[in-house]
Design brief:
Layout: H1 5-13, E1 31-32, H2 45-57, H3 65-68, H4 71-84, E2 91-93, H5 97-110, E3 117-121, H6 126-139, E4 142-146, H7 156-161, E5 167-173, H8 185-195, E6 198-202, H9 214-217, E7 221-224, E8 239-242, H10 244-247, H11 286-302, H12 304-326, E9 332-333, E10 346-349, H13 353-362, E11 365-366, E12 368-370, E13 374-377, H14 386-402, H15 411-415
Parallel strand pairs: 1-11, 3-4, 3-5, 5-6, 6-7
Antiparallel strand pairs: 2-8, 7-8, 9-10, 10-13, 12-13
Helix pairs in contact: 1-14, 2-11, 4-11, 5-6, 12-14
Catalytic activity: L-kynurenine + H2O = anthranilate + L-alanine + H(+); 3-hydroxy-L-kynurenine + H2O = 3-hydroxyanthranilate + L-alanine + H(+)
Function: Catalyzes the cleavage of L-kynurenine (L-Kyn) and L-3-hydroxykynurenine (L-3OHKyn) into anthranilic acid (AA) and 3-hydroxyanthranilic acid (3-OHAA), respectively.
Keywords: Hydrolase, Pyridine nucleotide biosynthesis, Pyridoxal phosphate
Amino acid sequence: MDLSRAAAAALDDADPLAAFRARFTGVDDGLYLDGNSLGRLPVETPAAVARVVKQEWGRGLVGSWSSWVEQARRIGDLLADGVLGARPGEVLVSDTTSVDLYKLLVAGADARPGRDVLVCCADDFPTDRYIVAGVAASRGMTVREVDAHIDTGLDLDVLAAALDERVAVVVLSQVAYRSGALVDIAEVTALARDSGALVLWDLSHAAGAVPAELTTAGADLAVGCTYKYLNGGPGAPAFLYVRSELQEQLRQPIWGWFGARDQFAMGPSYDPADGVDRFGVGTPPVLAMAAVEVGARITAEAGIERLAAKGRALTELVVALADAWLTGYGVTVASPREAPRRGSHVSLAHPQAWQLTQALVDRGVVPDFRTPDRLRLGPAPLYTRFVDVWDAMDRLRTVLAEGAHTSYPTERARVT
């Protein structure tokens, strides 16, 4: 593999997604490799939000609810078709990822009466594990946390050993938040189905960068955020997915009026709506939804397969440069090396990863840090160039060669 900057520039020249970079703000202000935490602002988003503020709210006032009330399903269908590989009427934009996870976990557990075990991954994102623990505690259930390698992810044989007739729901992430390790949705779904359990997927570190193909995989349930690779903005509302065949069997625990069959009848008792609408709760955040719709449309236009292909190529470059330049400084690749087993981010392990992160930020590179000693690099296929990756890795090499990171305090010193 040619590791010259000229070779990286040639990849940019041949990139079929290159034109999308101009549709985001601030792309020339430093090297941003944290798109897996918060995506960039699309150029179209301020005007889209302003239109809702000035025209729909400012002039239409309450009359604009005739269009706002359809937002959750409209954007959901856009995500279903253009990003998630799902069918119309299976995705709803609603609440936060945490709330959606809670709703679907409780609904799934209720749909498996007599089963008293919830399964999750010991190395999964903390909120997911906390919610599983909280639901189990409130229902008198048991949690089985399956071990996963911090770098290479979940072993399906280990998962299979944890599945039996007591398991109601399995909660897993498609892409591990720390290492980027990718799990095969179809394989896990088949394993769980053999034991009679449902699987609830967290797609937060995958949606917009990795194909989910939920229908093809036969997936049961999923949730995910919209502010990472989908570029919906900080705190943007999340999405949930429920397979059509399951929707009438499930009743979620938060009985809000946006999940009711005839919400404006203001009836005396809760009667869940048909289809995916029953998983709504309260009044949606209309302004934030406008921003989500812009990001979702750009992602769908780019095409998830093209985004995934570029994401694999970008992360392959990170791995190759780390091997060539950084090994002698004690840096190791802490993600799966095989591109098909990786999402769109790579973690590098180093005892002073926190200090390296701060040194890079001061030199115009934005990565992020994950415990215990991981420097995480998340190139976003929509706007990150190959030369951006090359330049960021070159600056990291320089920091290490000069020992510049050693002048920074440890994370513990920073906190105290």
